[in-house]
Amino acid sequence: MPNAIVLVSGGMDSCVTAAMALDAGHDLLLLHLNYGQRTERRELEAFSALANHYGIAEDRRLVVSIAHLAAIGGSSLTDSSIPVSAADLNSQAIPSSYVPFRNAHLLSVAVSWAEVADADLIYIGAVFEDSSGYPDCRPAYYAAFNEVIRLGTAKGTIRIETPIIHMTKESIIKQGIVLEAPLHLTWSCYQGSDEACGVCDSCALRLRGFQLAGVEDPIPYAVRPRY
Amino acid sequence: MPNAIVLVSGGMDSCVTAAMALDAGHDLLLLHLNYGQRTERRELEAFSALANHYGIAEDRRLVVSIAHLAAIGGSSLTDSSIPVSAADLNSQAIPSSYVPFRNAHLLSVAVSWAEVADADLIYIGAVFEDSSGYPDCRPAYYAAFNEVIRLGTAKGTIRIETPIIHMTKESIIKQGIVLEAPLHLTWSCYQGSDEACGVCDSCALRLRGFQLAGVEDPIPYAVRPRY
Which of B52, B76, B80, B176 gives B16 a disulfide partner, CB atoms 3.0 to 4.6 angstroms apart? Predict the structure, then answer.
């Protein structure tokens, strides 16, 4: 089976993306990146649980630290002096959790690994419409990045796949259930506690998705507002 | 004066690029990246000497380690089991020193910093025609990356400048002399010794450039072949 790299943050979206890459007949290589975010420990636990669930061998997992992103700062996810704002799902503004140009770092590591590990596809669980409004989640951004990869690699055949980019959270959850993705092992909250906070942007999007799908979210929350 | 970030490896090309950014009226922020290459220590020394020469304050210098590139491997620059090949300036093949997708990592760090440090320009001393033939030095690659930046940042006004991309080594050296760039402080060799080897791809390109310019290269070499 052909190799595919999947970027696995440990959240729901990347979990369902991994399930879809597997369902498409790929042999998975899982990549996780720490970037000095508040939830680093919790996300790495979720990554490992997911990799174990799918029986991914140790030499097909890569965990990379790009902690210089925290040194550069500019985001509530990596700078503890900037508060994580409560969700405003109707706002068009870029939230304080935006990590400047973060996804380019994740994708660059994935592409370098793809050149060496003989993988032609890189799956990333970016979501556009039903998301926080980060500029580096736009479909056009990934199209442009694919052009950079085509021009800037020795292989020239590597490309990024964004299978859930046009899906709503509700349909991502339903897809995950159909594919028996281990949603109970995932972590989406922007706070670093043991229970998800229920009120940050990421919790709000996730809980609203489960509520619309008519399914109980299997992870623990401090509070579970209706969105 | 407007801020500009300059990527400074410590080599001749980035030294002349910094001199050009200064000459264009910018206030410089200098970025250096270690990626586990053989010549890391020597290049960092050259970076610091250059930053001191231009009187750049400590808080306007950023040194970042992306040593995961060495963990991923695939290049003679980061994997000591792959020999640094002798130069073949007539070959069209990608040499063993190519670090898979390296420049995307460098540029991503620069763009993240530019978002936070209020810089709109990022200078990189990429050279196309008179170079080693790396895919990520093509002009089209930088045009595509600028599109990724436009689409993937909050600011949307940041762009990469490649002022020497169409210049020969000979004209880069002449430009450096006109601008009084401290070429004697630079380091280009792919080997990690105290003297430049004189025979790797990078030494060959540099020595040929000085020979064509009719100027003595001010740094020490183990051997100085005529190219």
Answer: B176
